[in-house]
Structure formats: C-alpha cells, structure tokens
Amino acid sequence: MLRNALGITFRFLGYTVQYGCIAHCAFEYLGGIVVCSGPSMEPTIQNSDIVFSENLSRHFYCIRKGDIVIVKSPNDPKSNICKRVIGLEGDKVCTSNPSDFLKSHSYVPKGHVWLEGDNLRNSTDSRCYGPVPYALIRGRVCFKIWPLNDFGFLRASPNGHRFLDD
C-alpha cells in the first residue's frame, strides 16, 4: 500500500516538473498573454487591454520600427513596459517632447532601441531614460485579445511622423 502511494506521488511530481518545464519554455521562447496597464499606449492599447506577445522575434533580431514591444523597465527591472519601437541602432531619432519649440535629435547606439508610447503627452519612455538595450526586450505584441470588440491586429502608430528616415 505504501509502495503504491509513493509510486503515485513520485509519478505526479515527475509529471508536474515535466509539464512545468514545458510551460516555462513555451512562455519564455514562444510567447504569452500580457495585461497592459497605464495610459502611455492610448489610443492603440487602453488600460487593462489584454494582448498576445510572441518572443521569437527578439531571439532572431526581427524587431522593426513601428513594432509594439514588451520590455523590462530600465527604471524598475521587476516590471515590464509596453512601448512602440521608434528607432533601431544607428537611426536618427527626435529626442525632444512634441511641445518643445526647438527639436533635438540623436542617434540610437549599437545594441539599443528607441521606445516611445503612442500617447506622447502621458508616456515615460526613451525621451526620459534614453535608448534601451535590445536585451531588455521580452517580446513583440502581435494582436489584442481583450476587449473582444477590439480583437485583432493592432493599428499603426498615430505618431508616424516621429519615424525619421535620415
């Protein structure tokens, strides 16, 4: 009886570890579901919207200008942020706020990206903390899951004029 109970217990623990490892690999390398909070990506992503983020793009260096990404916060490594990629390494970006009279520009250094929220007036982004290391990117947002009336691929940036092609 005891032998049978131990066998069942170890079998259960073995399956738990096995499926836990599979789940970890799936969420780490394939993607996952993310709940976004805050106003920085409005109107594209509202507070409490749920999105699907895939992680393969970051591993294969397929992140492009205009992509919305989930990134480890440069200010707080325990939290993630959701922002749009405005510039890749070597790109010239506008580093000033939209309300600034004089516009300043800079180049994104090697191994970094420039991130901004779609809601430029209410976003803490690269204009505050500078270029973000590519290694902090966790995944690329593919589409919105919730709310259901907004289900589907995400719309283009309302700030397309901020993408410089120089």
TrEMBL record:
What EC number(s) are associated with this protein in UniProt?
Answer: 3.4.21.-
One of its Pfam families is: Peptidase_S26
Q: Keywords for this entry?
A: Hydrolase, Membrane, Mitochondrion, Mitochondrion inner membrane, Protease
The lineage's top-level taxon is Eukaryota
**Compartments reported by the entry:** Mitochondrion inner membrane
GO process terms (BP): protein processing involved in protein targeting to mitochondrion; signal peptide processing
Where does this chain mainly localize?
mitochondrion
InterPro entries (alphabetical): LexA/Signal_pep-like_sf, Mito_IMP1_subunit, Pept_S26A_signal_pept_1, Peptidase_S26
GO MF, one annotated term: serine-type endopeptidase activity
The UniProt entry's GO CC annotations, sorted and at most eight, read: mitochondrial inner membrane peptidase complex
Query: Is Protease found in the keyword set?
Result: yes
EC category: hydrolase
Q: Where is the Peptidase S26 domain?
A: 16-97, 103-146
The active site annotation covers 40, 83
Quote the subunit structure annotation.
Heterodimer of 2 subunits, IMMPL1 and IMMPL2.
* Protein family according to the UniProt entry: Belongs to the peptidase S26 family. IMP1 subfamily.
Q: What is this protein's record name?
A: Mitochondrial inner membrane protease subunit
Species this chain originates from: Crotophaga sulcirostris
